[in-house]
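User: Hey, my collaborator sent me this sequence without any context and asked if I could get a structure. I don't really work with proteins. Can you help?
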Amino acid sequence: MTGPGSASSTRCVRCRAPVHREWVGRIAALHVIADLTPLTPAEQTAVREPNRLIWCLRQASPYTPAHLAWTGRDHPAGCPFDHVTEHRCTAEPTTLF
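Assistant: No problem. I've predicted the 3D structure and written it out in structure-token form, which is a compact way to encode the shape of the chain:
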């Protein structure tokens, strides 16, 4: 398990979709698994729910890892970074038996 601020891009273990995993925050960190598919503003409005946040996938340079930031009320309207949402697996559940 990784600590707050650490991030990795990997694949969902159930549906194999590309995802970004990160502990976001310093005091009460959230463990976020986000889809790597960028959303348009219209798509962000369509998928936003009380328990499904939109995240800004910030990358300072091509040589540094990307980090998630919440797109709350103080988030700039003209943000140049991709915006993503929490991953919801589309694969059908399977059993081990």
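In plain terms: The longest strand covers residues 18-24. You can pass these tokens on to your collaborator as they are.
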